[in-house]
Structures are given as structure tokens and as C-alpha cells.
Amino acid sequence: QPVQEGGSLSFALTHQPASFNLDTRKGHDLQAQLVMDRVWPQVFVIDAQGVPQLDTNFVKSAETGRLAPQTIVYQIDDRATWSDGVPITADDFIYNWEAQSGDPVYADVGGKPFDAASTAGYSQIESVTGSNRGKTVTVVFKTPYGDWKSLFNNLIPAHIARTVGWNTGFDAFGPAVISGGPYLVQSDAPGQQIVLARNPRYWGPPAHLDTIVLRSLPDPTQDPSTLQSGTVDLVYPAPQIDVVQQVRQIATVASSTGLGFSFEHLDFNQRNPFLKLLPVRQAIAKAIDRQQLIAAGVGQINRTIRPDNNHLFVNSQQGYQDNGVGYAQGDAAGARKLLVGAGFVAGPDGYLQLGGAPLELRLSTTSDDPLRVAAEGLIADQLRRAGIKVDAANAPTATLLTQDLPAGNFDLALFSWVSSAFLSDNAAPYETPGVGGASNFDAYSSAKVDSLFDQANSELNAARAGSIYNQIDQQLWADMVSLPLYQDPTFLAHVRGYVNITDNPSASGPFWNAEQWGLVLPSRPAGS
Asked: How confident is the model at residue 371 (pLDDT cuts 50, 70, 90)?
């Protein structure tokens, strides 16, 4: 929609990014992605339908040169330039590959190993070379990689990173944090606000708004009042029922709900002697009534949400297949029957036990998410009806995700996985640790699953790859690795008068097209 040129918009940011380099482990964060989505250049942008689209302002073409070995040729726009005036070239592609390749021959400043959030795809590259004054980039793979479109996004400037370092050189705002997109970071007052301004060196269509102010507002329950007072113009919180209902009552605010790529699930820590037993994991899954969880929680935000019966595809994603046969309804009696068949007997308190040891499990979730805590309470009640005693062991989000889960300090854990349009990105929770399962907190290992992931990741035909990913998911259900619950809703609200703000299922959220945001043009007088 046509908009005015100029103006500003304020956004509610829940926390300060730990780093502006999104491809380090500490920088790999949803809030950081929102901040930098239209700052760092990206070869492919995920559109509002969740489909990768080539950013032809940055790269004019990205095409397969040959299949044996797989070769991709990128043509960078001749005008593409960093905001400090240095051209964006093949050298930037080469450096970003080296930093994320996982190859110890490449090291950060001071000889330190590169800290990469993931090496997926990059570890399969044999070489990256430049020609045509650095504007042509040729990438040759050692082994085929079907999700090659996921690579070379959020590019870091090589000419700066080689001096300040990949690992920590972009942690704080300063001269290193330049731009190759329509916006640049103009200022950062940690804990207060980050200001994005139109990048004057951007060669593509200029952004409409002069600035986007990202205010640090960690409490989403304040979103209704901050929208009404004009403190912020746009919010994109993890939705809570009361907040959504309050915002919907504000006449000056437009709001919508959607579905993201993230989904809630229950992790089973197989280090626990009970959870190591397949019948116990199956019984827990059978006892849980996911439809009840939805009706009591997220279904009040988005009525289209259904139980998620796939570990690798979310319900709204192309290729989704219902593989959760036998777990459609909560069945406490059936769960108890499974446990009795595995040798469990009722103890004096009514709960089941095995060899005199009570079937008692800790259930952990994020204590600062009321919707999730409410779901936890329902799950605990459902499991108790099946004879399983449950004790809540919650922690703040940062503690649970960065400390307890990686350390294996949990029995059952309720949290969300952020999936991706690129299915190879979704493998980490299920691959064997050390093979690729950096986020495998459950001590699960299957040579069959690892092998199938290798096949799927190397399959260049999307339909055949999708079929293999669904084979993997069927095995994950058979092994009852974890229980997918439901797709997470998204909630977007902005002050009326701003236009072209649309949701996106990926980690980019509404920022995927921030350069198109603007204030609506004033209506012209009749007869003018």
C-alpha cells in the first residue's frame, strides 16, 4: 500500500541482544533476529507464506551450476556495498563459510575456535571462490545439500570481522556493527532502546520510515497500556490470553493472530531410569489430552490450532503429515494399562511403582510464561490420573534454556522448539550428540535416524526429501523421543495508521519487510 515518506515507529523489544552477530551461539536469539533482520544482508528472505525468496536487491541470481559436484553460483549486485563504503564481495561469503564450517583449520582472532550457532550446510562445502571483481561467488559442495538456500544469511562483514573477531567483536554496538541492508543500527542504549535508521548507502529501494525505535519493555503484560499511551506503536509478544483480549478492545489498534514455525512439546530425558523405558514414554504421551490443553490455552488466542502430529513439520507447513497414530485422544486408562504391562504396580498412595521405586517425575517449564505454566498444571493432572506422580520444577526462561536443559537437569520439560522453513535446521534435537545433535537434551540416539537425516539433507529433490523427513518422523514417534503438542500462535498488534506490517512464520516475524512499513497517506480532499 502506498505510504508517506518519513516518520518513525516504536517497537516493544523484550530484551537486549547478547550479540549483533546472529550466527554465534549467544547471538542466535529471536529478539536479536528482529533487530538485525533488515540490517545484515540475506541471500534468501522467508516471505509471509514461509517460502524462501531470493532478495534480488542483494543477489541478482543464485543458480545451480552443475550437480556433480553440487555447485551454486551467486551473482552479487554490482551496487551492493556495506554502509562504510566497502563493496560486498565474495570475500564476505568466504569468511562467513569459514567461520561456520566447523573446520578447525579456520580460527578466530587470537587462534580461538570459531563459535558458530550451527555448521549445518557449511560443513558440507568444499570451496567458496570469487571472480568478476568479487561479484560472482562459486560454491562447490563436498556432498549435496538440499537446503542450500538457508546459507549465507545474516552475513557479517569480513573486512571488519577479521580484525575485531567473529566470536565477540559484534557483541556490543560500535563501529563494527555496520549494515548491508535497508536499515542500520544508529544507536544502542542497552536496557533502554536501539534505534534503526534508514541506511543512506543502501542501493535498493529506500526504506519508507526514517527510524524504527526498539524500546526495551520486558513485561508483555504492559503491551495494552503502552499501545494506548503511544509509548510503542507495534508489539509482537509471545501471546498471553489476557493481553490478547485487552488489546483487541483498543479501537485505535489493529491486531491479528497467526501461526509460527515454533511448536510446544514435551521432552523426555532418557537419562532418567524410568524415562529410559519406552513403555513409560509411550504411556505419558497416551495420557496427555492435547485437545484439552489447546482448548484451555492457545485455542483461545487462535481457534485454528490443532494437535501437532509431526516433529519436523508444523501443521501449517507444506509437507506436514500426521504421523501420531494412536495418540489422537488423551487416554489415562490406556496409559495405565501400558505401565502395568511393563511391570508397574500400584503403591500404597495410588501411584504406580516399579521394584518398590515410585514413578515420580519432575516436570520443568518456564516460570515466567503464564500460559505455559497453566498447560503444565493440566499435564500434571492428566499424568496423575494415569498413576504418574509429577512435581513441578520450574525456572526462568534463561535458566531453563541455557543451563538446565543443556546440563540434563530435568526429567520432563515443556518448552517450544523454533522450527524453520529449512527442514535440515530442525534435525539438531534428534540427531546423536556429537553427530549433529547440538540441541539433543534427551540423550536419544538412533543410528537409523542419523542415517536418514544424512539422506534427507543430501537430497536435492524437495518432494523426495520431504518423504524422507516424514520417514524420520515416523521413527521418532515409534521411539517416542518427545511429544509434540501444538503449534504456537503469534500475535501482532500495531497502532492504526501504520500499514504494510504483516506477520511471518519465521524468526524474522513482522520485520521481514520492515523497509515497506510506513504511515498511511492522508486522504485527498474531494475534487483535488
From this structure: very high
Q: How do beta strands 345-346 and 59-67 pair?
A: unpaired
**Phi (first) and psi of residue 472, to 5 degrees:** -60, -45
What per-residue confidence (pLDDT) applies to 528? 43
The answer to whether 32 and 418 have CB atoms below 8 angstroms apart is no
Give the pLDDT confidence of 99-148 residue by residue, as tens digits. Answer: 999 999 999 999 999 999 888 899 999 999 999 999 999 999 999 999 99
The pLDDT assigned to 524 comes to 58
- pLDDT grade, residue 226 (50/70/90)? very high
d(CA 377, CA 359): 18
The DSSP letter of residue 113 is B
CB count, 10 Å around CB of 245? 12
pLDDT, residue 29, reads 85
CB 138 within 8 A of CB 63: no
Average of per-residue pLDDT across 193-210: 98
pLDDT at 527 over 60: no
Quick one: CATH architecture of 8-210+496-519?
A: Alpha-Beta Complex (3.90)
Reduced 3-state DSSP string for 1-41: CCECCCCEEEEEECCCCCCCCCCCCCCCCHHHHHHHCCCCC
* Structural fold of domain 261-488: Dipeptide-binding Protein; domain 3 (3.10.105)
Q: Which three cell numbers stand for residue 96?
A: 562467513
Q: What is the DSSP track for 355-389? A: TTEE-EEEEEEBTT-HHHHHHHHHHHHHHHHTT-E
Pairwise CA distance, residues 144 & 465, whole Å: 12
CB burial string 378-399: b at 16+ within 10 A, e below: bbbebbeebbbbbeebbbebeb
The C-alpha cell 536501539 sits at 194
Length of the chain: 528
What are the extents of the domains in the chain? Answer: 8-210+496-519, 261-488
3-state SS record for 146-199:
CCHHHCCECCCCHHHHHHHCCCCCCCCCCCCCCCCCCEEEEEEECCCEEEEEEC
- For 392-431, give the DSSP string: E--B-HHHIIIIIHHHT--SEEEEEEE--SSGGGG-TTTS
Number of Cβ within 10 Å of residue 238's Cβ equals: 21
Of 17-31, 218-232, 421-435, 495-509, the least confident: 421-435
Helix (H) / strand (E) containing 345: strand 345-346
The DSSP symbol for 269 reads: -
Please give the distance of CA 432 from its chain centroid, rounded to a whole number: 21
